[in-house]
Structure formats: structure tokens, C-alpha cells
Amino acid sequence: MASSPPRIQERTGLQAMQTFPIVIVGGGAGGLELAVGLARNGHSDLLLIDRTPTHIWKPRLHEVAAGSGPGEIDEIAYASLAEKWGFAFQQGSLADVSAEDRTITLAEMTQDTQSHVVPPRRIGYQALVLAIGGGTPDFGVEGVREHAAMLDDVEGAKALFSRLSHRLPAHHANNTDRPFQIVVAGSGATGVELAAHLKTDLRCAALAPHSDLPPVDVTILEGADQILGGVDDEVRSVVKDQLETTGVRVETGQQICKVMANVVETRSGQTFKADVTIWATGTSGPAIAGDIAALETNRKGQWRVRPSLQTTRSDAIFALGDCCSNTDATAPTTAQAASEQAEHLIDALPRWLENEPIDAFEFRNKGTLLSLGDAGTVGTVKSWFHTDISINGRLAHAAYRGLYHQHQFRILGPLKGSEQFAADLFERAAGPRLKVYG
Asked: Which CATH number describes the domain made up of 18-135+284-353?
């Protein structure tokens, strides 16, 4: 691999600029697996950037929101992984990209007080990978940004758990006979999994024992005529049955037109009481995408990439995951797709840096698995003959956990990954682990 260019010492109100052969912005499922995979293959002269100091596997955010954490969902420090595998890490948020200069700018970071400021930083690259994830579109619906919670990242998941932990005791203190009402807008994987966990596994940081919690009613509102668009009909039917068996109310054909502090209104004229409203209506590009003039976006605000995962306006800039969309074939906005894209780039980036041709990315769908809390796990997996096999119960649960442990093995390595797998089994049997924050 080409050696790292000399460090450029340039001070113009920014910190001295560093240049790396590969810069990866975003440490989600795809970005982190890419950084570790490159380093394990001998290409550790790279920089990983994320706006938070720790990594949580995004498919488990609904568990964080329902109260399984912090402490029971593994948070892994990026700095520790960087030390382990030999790459560099910096905490920061993307502010701009200059394709012409091959530089990125990180925004100023203020910590604690104004006296603790990390100034804007400019970083050079030979190859840049954008993997910062996406957001949830509000579709211009009145009141969404003011009154609804979203599950775009770990901060959003923790904020939702905090909101629930404040409002449940208040509802309990009023001695009302009315159940606590939660409305989930959207019936994709995130909405369905979250609704099931809130109904069956909801915990409260401010009230115990669990039996003292008021009864909780959860309603899913979906604008389309069926839930889980794009999912196998058999899986959709099983999921709907299990949701209704656990007491989750599913209302299809309900397009929301207004969200208020305690009520959600639909175009049909119906209103739904909502002590908490959660907006889970699909995926759009990151908010920063529209501010970066160097790159092209689609109508959903995602960066447009070619089949090679290179952006349409720069061969040196790649993107993966929810923040981008392929101009020829769109992979689903899932951790599975991001992981496959990372695997592709682990091979492609070193080849590109050596001026060798790179192949197009091809998504290989391995199936769909949905965790529904105490209602169980359901989904489909691909057989050796590329046909869908429907699974549920313990087998589906084991397969779902297996996806998470595959991720752990990729970022921790075989030995540490095995230790974490054994610890996870023990801790689930023994109860919540103690995690102290200093």
C-alpha cells in the first residue's frame, strides 16, 4: 500500500493538518468494520472519525430505548479498538468536504465549558469513506420535530428512554386508570421491533419494581395498507399476529397529518392519544449532506454513489450505509448491507490506492430477522439454494444473536470476540451487569 504522505504543518485558524491514505467518517456497523478489517489486513495507516467516543451496534438501539442499557448493551470505545488494531481515531463531526483539495473539515467541539474547546480541524486524505448514517424524514408533518422522538442514533435512543422514565412516573403519580399511551409512527423494522420491546420489555429508570409501572398501550400507525413493506408476506403475517397477541395495536392506512404534545391526528380525521410519540418512518440522508456542495444527493438527501461505491462527482470519495444510494441498484438501509459494503471496500480501497481496477459492489441478501422482545424473533434466512426459509422461536432468536456476535468477532477478533460471546451468555443468565460511569 502507498505510504502515508508527509504531515502538512499548516496553521490558518485550524489545527495543523494531518493527511492519511484512508479517512473513514462514521463508526457505525459499516464504518467500524471497515476500519478494523483494513487494519487487520495490514492497512492500518488510516483515520476513523466519529462524533461519539463509543460504538453501539445500531440494530440494538430499540433495546436501549426500551431500557436495556446503558450497561446491558455493549458500548465499545473507539480509542480502545484503535489501540488494539493500530489505526488512528479522532472524535469529531463532519462540517465540510473539499473534493478538489482532498480535505475534510471537522466542526469545532465544545466540551464542558467554553474554556474546553477543540478548534476546527482540517484533515487530508487520499481516499475518503463517508459512513455517517442517515436520519428519519419528517415528510413536512406538522409537530414532528417539536413533539416526537426519533431513533436515529444512540443519543436518540437514550433520550427516548429518559423521556419515558420521566413521563411514566408522572402518569403513575396521577393515579389515573388510563393506560400510558405510546404511538409509534411507521411499521418498518425499527418501528415494529421498538413497539414490541416497549410493550413487553419496557423498563423505567425512575420507578421500580416493574409491577408498579402503569399499564402501557402501544399503537403502530402505518400510512400504507400493510406493515413491513418489502418483507416476505409470510413473515409479515407472523409478525402482525405476534404483535397483536402481545397487545400491540396495528392501524394501517393511517397517514399522520399532525403531531401534538399528547395527540396524533391522521388524514382520516381520527385522533390517537399519545403520552409519547415515536417517529420511525423510514430513512433519509444525513442533515449535513445538503450542506456539502462537492457531492451530489438524491431526493432523499443521500449521497449518490456508483456501483463501485464511489461518489458520482469524485473517484476518491466513497460512501456506504444509510448515508448513500447507488445510482443503479439500491441496497436496503440495514446493518447487513452496510457490513457487506464494508467487506467490499476492505478489498477495493487498497487496490484503488495502487491504481488497480475495482469491482462493483453486489448486495447478497441473507434474509430478514426481527426481534420482538418477549414476543420472540421471526424472519427468513437464505438456504444453500438461495431460497427463503422462514424461521421463528429459539432458532430465529439464535440467528439474530448470531448476527450480533458476528459483528463482535469482526471488530474484536476471534479471541476477544469469543470472550465477549461467553460473557454475554453468562450475563443474560445472571442478570444486568454493573457499569459505572465516572
From this structure: 3.50.50.60
